[in-house]
Amino acid sequence: MIRRNFQKSGALLIDAFPATDLEESASAAIAGLRNSVEKWKSTMRARKAQVRRAKRTQIVAPAFQWAQSLTHVYLNVKYSTKLDSPGYLEVINETVNFTDQGVALVADVERVLTRR
Q1: Per-residue 3-state assignment (H helix, E strand, C coil) for 18-56
Q2: Where are the domains of the chain?
Q3: I need a surface site. Which of 6, 92, 100, 109 has the fewest CB within 10 A?
Q4: pTM (whole model) above 0.70
C-alpha cells in the first residue's frame, strides 16, 4: 500500500486490524522504496559527473618537433602547449594512426581540478 501512495488507507487498515502483523510488510516496502530512491540518486549523481567532465574537456594541440632524412621521419611530441613548459606525465587512451596523408595522434589525460 505504501508503494502505491495509500498511506491513509494503510493507517485505516492498521486501526481496523490491530492484531495482524503489518509492521514487517510495511518495513519491507519502506526499505524497498529507500533502496530505489538511493539507486536513482546515485545514477543521477553519476550522470551529473559525466556531464561536468564532458563540459571540462579541452582539445589542446601538443608541442612537437620533427626531423627527417631520406628514409625516416622523427617526431618528438610533448603533451604540453610549449616544449619548454611542463607537460602531462600520465596519458591514457593514446592512439596513433598513420595514413597516406599524415599522422593522427590522440590521447586523453586524467586531470583533477583544484579550486583556490
Answers
A1: CCCCCHHHHHHHHHHHHHHHHHHHHHHHHHHHHHHHHHH
A2: 7-56, 63-109
A3: 100
A4: no
